[in-house]
What does this fold into?
Amino acid sequence: MVYDMILPALPFIGGYLLTYSLYKMKLIKKALHINIWNLIIGLAFLISAGAGFILLLVMELNIKLPISPELLYWHVELGVTLALVTVFHFHTYWKSAKTMFVAAKRRRSQA
It folds into this structure.
């Protein structure tokens, strides 16, 4: 099975650039920009996790379903989307997220 990475990512990259541009031009509030992308990350997680859980049950119960390959495909595609939207999430919350990546001692010396 071949997975597409670029094609499914393009609408999300375009959508993020659109909402971020609208926010920067002060046409929408930052809260709306964030809420849109929080909704997208939540939906991608729910669908990907749900598909993964169903696949796990099918595999554990040794059930052969004709939908399993398609379910696996969409599970992986939405997982890729989830990873991409997580990058957007870090961009939005960079100031608070950088505390995970910068050593505490170095943060104290910068303050």
